[in-house]
From TrEMBL:
Protein name, entry field: Sushi domain-containing protein
Superkingdom: Eukaryota
Record lineage: Eukaryota, Viridiplantae, Chlorophyta, core chlorophytes, Chlorophyceae
Originating organism: Tetradesmus obliquus (Green alga)
Length: 407
């Protein structure tokens, strides 16, 4: 940069205008894309569109040369893809698409890169082909259930960023948004690439966008706790613009949660299975028998119209007997013997001297004692009268212990 007391600049320099519309009396070296012949008090001249200079401080219009780029312009909102023919040119223009209107032009900058777009695409508030059908999984739930509902809104067009986010609302009249429930998350965006056209243009055609939201438990119970139909709709942008896309969720009478009462004795465990919560009227919840200790059909309960569960049906019977039939069998390892098996124990020799011992049988109702056959030996007896002896012996004392000896 050079300074002059006179209002005249050398070749390649110029005087810029100030914010007050008057020249700033300083001479500045001209940047790329500008030139000045010198001996001037005005700003430097700019090369024409698509033209630049090979160096700073150019002094004549003859130094302006075509500005070309070997790559394609940067991505821009509303532009699916720049034409391949833009490579090697100083400017590029293409039409907007995918819910955007207008066209965009970019020009080769003086720094040998593409400049900012000279105009931008305009986003349609709702693209004309903004249509789609929502899906719910599942499509119906039981009133007051904790089941999670996944809402998926699939649109036939990819929404432009300027159109705003997609939100899930409850609705009245099947269309009108009522209560904001949740912002939806974009989950899938698919594109298809077509072959280059004759003019060397590679197009990218948007096929659609998919948005999802999940509601569960309290979020649904706040809307209704009675059987009926809930209506939902998708809205677009911060101003909640209706899209006309609606969905319906059926609220049915049934059992919202699994039975709280434990199954009867012999069951494998708590009530379980997909039919034990969010169950329709008439649905049954099962549990099997705890094999091998128990066998049978298992147990079941049925969801009643009032939303409660019935008493248990079915049966489980023991396939073996647990524990011991009694203290007499303590050392006999009778535990877990199968139905019909018998457990025996001998008579204790230190107490009894005769008998077949103890016998118990395993039945459906548990251990049944079949016999207890253990007895002590009978003492020696006298079958006749004692011989005369001491004065305390008397007649009529047959079968009494003889002492000192029977005669």
């Amino acid at each position: 940069m050079c300074f002059f007391t006179a209002a005249v600049c050398n070749p390649g320099y110029g005087v810029p205008k100030s914010v007050f519309g008057l020249p700033v009396w300083r001479c500045y070296r001209r940047r790329l894309g500008f030139y000045s012949a010198g001996n001037t008090t005005t700003a430097c001249s700019k090369c024409g569109e698509g033209m630049t200079t090979a160096r700073e401080g150019a002094t004549a219009p003859e130094e302006c040369i075509p500005a070309v780029c070997d790559d394609l312009p940067r991505e821009a909102p509303g532009i699916a893809a720049w034409p391949a023919a833009c490579k090697g040119k100083s400017s590029c223009t293409t039409d907007c698409s995918g819910g955007w209107t207008g066209s965009v032009t970019v020009v080769r900058g003086a720094d040998k890169t593409w400049g900012q777009p000279q105009q931008n695409c305009s986003a349609d508030k709702v693209p004309q082909n903004f249509t789609g059908q929502p899906s719910l999984s599942p499509a119906n739930i039981i009133v007051n259930s904790d089941a999670a509902i996944t809402f998926t809104m699939k649109f036939t067009t990819e929404l432009p960023a300027a159109a705003g986010h997609v939100s899930l609302f409850s609705s009245t009249g099947h269309i009108n948004p009522e209560l904001h429930l949740k912002d939806m998350q974009q989950s899938v965006t698919r594109r298809s690439h077509s072959a280059p056209a004759a003019a060397g243009v590679t197009s990218v055609s948007p096929r659609g966008s998919s948005y999802t939201a999940i509601l569960q438990g309290a979020a649904l119970r706040n809307l209704s706790n009675s059987p009926g139909v809930l209506h939902f709709t998708a809205v677009l942008g911060a101003d909640d613009q209706p899209t006309g896309i609606t969905a319906e969720l059926q609220l049915l009478t049934g059992c919202a949660s699994a039975p709280t009462d434990a199954p009867p004795t012999g069951a494998l465990g708590p009530w379980a299975g997909k039919d034990c919560s969010n169950a329709a009227v008439g649905a049954q919840c099962f549990t099997s028998c705890n094999w091998p200790a128990y066998d049978g059909s298992g147990y079941y309960v049925t969801c009643l119209p009032d939303g409660s569960w019935s008493g248990p049906g079915g049966f489980c019977f023991p396939t073996s007997c647990t524990g011991s039939p009694g203290p007499e069998w303590a050392a006999s390892n009778c535990e877990f013997m199968h139905i019909g098996a018998r457990c025996t124990a001998p008579c204790p020799q230190d107490v009894f001297t005769s008998g077949s011992g103890y016998v118990a049988e395993c039945t459906l109702s548990g251990w049944q004692v079949m016999s207890r056959d253990c007895s002590m030996s009978q003492p020696d007896v006298c079958n006749d009268l004692p011989t005369p002896g001491p004065p305390f012996w008397q007649q009529g004392l047959e079968f009494q212990l003889c002492w000192p000896e029977c005669g």
